[in-house]
Amino acid sequence: MSIMIQVTERMSVLPVSKKQQVIFGLMMCTGMVVVMMTFNLWHTGMLSQMSVPQLLLQFVICFAIAFLVESFIVGPIARKITFSFSFARSSKIKGVVTMSFLMVIGMVLLMSLYGIITAYTARQLEGDSVINAYLHTIVRNFGLALPYQLIVLGPLVRYVFGKLFKGPAAVASV
Predict the structure, then answer these.
(1) With contact defined as beta carbons under 8 Å apart, do 3 and 128 qualify?
(2) How many angstroms separate the CA atoms of 113 and 1, rounded?
(3) I need a surface site. Which of 8, 137, 152, 167 has the fewest CB within 10 A?
(4) DSSP letter for each residue of the chain
(5) What is the residue extent of each domain of the chain?
(6) Of the candidates 41, 39, 35, which has an alpha carbon nearest to the alpha carbon of residue 55?
(7) Rounded to whole angstroms, how far apart are CA atoms 71 and 134?
(8) How crowded is residue 66: how many other Cβ atoms within 10 Å of its Cβ?
């Protein structure tokens, strides 16, 4: 019983101000970009072919795009949809899971498109159908992003965020 209360309390720590939303988004985006970029570069065989400065440049570019997409497109849409469900408003856990699920869907769709555009411009898709490559990339990325977000990164970021922003200001209902 006490474990469930602790989990619920940790999951209820969400950003309430614009500043907190930016910090929370930076934390979430960093964790997702590091893992998803590494996974995709490894999957395409590019991880071993890139130097450290090239990897850092790719991370900065990918992070900037992901943060902008999350902040101005996917995040607002996911929040609007999440808050439209009464079950998500009545239960913090259901709200967090719904929001996470919608964020993963939106980010996978848009960031996979970014990855395909990058691969196409680097001439890595020669002979492949762009549409088939995009659909395959979506399935592959969703298969990693959803469990990683729900089981590892989401709880970790909410825990760290809760430690950074203690008190009632950081505790909000979804």
Answers:
(1) no
(2) 43
(3) 167
(4) -HHHHHHHHHHTB---SHHHHHHHHHHHHHHHHHHHHHHHHHHHT-GGGS-HHHHHHHHHHHHHHHHHHIIIIIHHHHHHHHHH-HHHHH-HHHHHHHHHHHHHHHHHHHHHHHHHHHHHHTT--TTS-HHHHHHHHHHHHHHHHHHIIIIIIHHHHHHHHHHHS-SGGGB---
(5) 16-167
(6) 41
(7) 23
(8) 23
Per-residue pLDDT reduced to its tens digit, 20-78: 999 999 999 999 999 999 999 999 888 999 999 999 999 999 999 999 999 999 999 99
Q: CA 157, CA 131: separation in Å to the nearest integer?
A: 34
Tokens linked to 72 = 């101005």
